[in-house]
């Protein structure tokens, strides 16, 4: 995460553990590997070393859009008991990568935070997969500070650049 400037661009300290991320098509995220938007369009399975009695927050963020938008929330799930993402509270449904044509490689970062307990999050209503509402101008650093989450305990990331699927995806995503 230091190699691709995730520290300090997105977080202050690199997590010590890895998140295992696997897409339904069998593709896996491997610390900076390049995957296409087509390969990551569907919600992946996510695993990390978790304690069954603890609550966690999972986020996927893209810090590389135009500066006015920086950063984009692609997935946000809180109050996950253990590492069963399906039992968590979804604030932003999974939205795969979608870098605009000509903007080069974007970093898509997955982070897990151990919550101090179950949190009554004061966030806007759930953002659906087909909406950009409440996704732009996100900051995981500020979010973590707001809810006293500390540093992430696990992470992983991939890079992606535009492919034809992005245009198809964007036809179904509203502002």
Automatic annotation (TrEMBL):
<dbReference type="Pfam" id="PF01161">
    <property type="entry name" value="PBP"/>
</dbReference>
<dbReference type="InterPro" id="IPR008914">
    <property type="entry name" value="PEBP"/>
</dbReference>
<protein>
    <recommendedName>
        <fullName>Phosphatidylethanolamine-binding protein</fullName>
    </recommendedName>
</protein>
<dbReference type="InterPro" id="IPR036610">
    <property type="entry name" value="PEBP-like_sf"/>
</dbReference>
<dbReference type="InterPro" id="IPR035810">
    <property type="entry name" value="PEBP_euk"/>
</dbReference>
């Amino acid at each position: 995460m230091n190699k691709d400037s995730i520290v300090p661009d997105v977080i202050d300290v690199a997590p010590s553990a890895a998140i295992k991320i696997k897409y339904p098509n069998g593709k896996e995220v491997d610390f900076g590997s390049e995957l296409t938007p087509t390969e990551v369009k569907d919600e992946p399975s996510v695993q990390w070393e978790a304690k069954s009695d603890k609550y966690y927050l999972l986020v996927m963020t893209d810090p590389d859009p135009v500066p006015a938008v920086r950063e984009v929330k692609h997935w946000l799930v809180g109050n996950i008991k253990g590492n069963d993402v399906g039992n968590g509270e979804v604030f932003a449904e999974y939205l795969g990568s979608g870098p605009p044509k000509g903007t080069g490689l974007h970093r898509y970062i997955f982070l897990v935070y151990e919550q101090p307990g179950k949190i009554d999050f004061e966030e806007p209503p759930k953002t659906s997969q087909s909406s950009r509402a409440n996704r732009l101008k996100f900051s995981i650093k500020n979010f973590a500070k707001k809810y006293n989450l500390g540093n992430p305990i696990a992470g992983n990331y991939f890079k992606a650049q535009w492919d034809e699927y992005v245009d198809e995806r964007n036809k179904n995503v509203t502002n």
